[in-house]
Amino acid sequence: MAKKKSKPNISQEVLERARAELRGGTTAAAAPKPESESATAASAKAKPIVRSGSLATRRVPSKEELDHEYRYIIRDLRAMLTLAGSLFLFVIVMALFVVPRIF
Fold it and tell me: Where are the domains of the chain?
C-alpha cells in the first residue's frame, strides 16, 4: 500500500481558514481581500515554475530502442488484429452463405 501523504493538497491560506472555522473563530486570512487586487495581479505574484531540465537536453530514444522496448506491444497488437480480422471474415461468410440457407 502507498504511504499516506502528511501534507494536504490545498493552499496554506485555505487550510488556516478551515482550521479557524473548526475552532469557531475567524482569522485575518478569512477577511475579504481588497478589490483593487485583481486576479492578474495575484497571478503575477505567484512563484514561477522551476523546471528540472529543458526539453532540448532530454535524450530522444532511437527507433531501434523503441522497437526493442515495445516489441511485446507490437506483437499483442498484431495478434489482436489477426483475431479481429478473422472474426470479421467469419461473420461475413456466415451472413452471406450459411444464414440464408437456414431460413
Answer: 73-103
Is residue 41 within 8 Å of 51, Cβ to Cβ? no
- Nine cell digits for residue 55: 526539453
Largest alpha-carbon pair distance within the chain? 84
Contact 17, 29 (CB under 8 A): yes
Query: Which three cell numbers mark 70?
Result: 515495445
Q: What is the pLDDT of residues 10-25, one digit of tens each?
A: 888 888 888 888 888 6
Nearest residue to 13 (alpha-carbon basis) of 5, 21, 2: 21
Residues of the chain with pLDDT under 70: 1-8, 25-56
Instruction: Give the burial class of 28: count Cβ atoms within 10 A of its Cβ; 0-12 exposed, 13-18 middle, 19 or more buried.
Output: exposed
pTM: 0.40
Element (H, E) at 81: helix 71-93
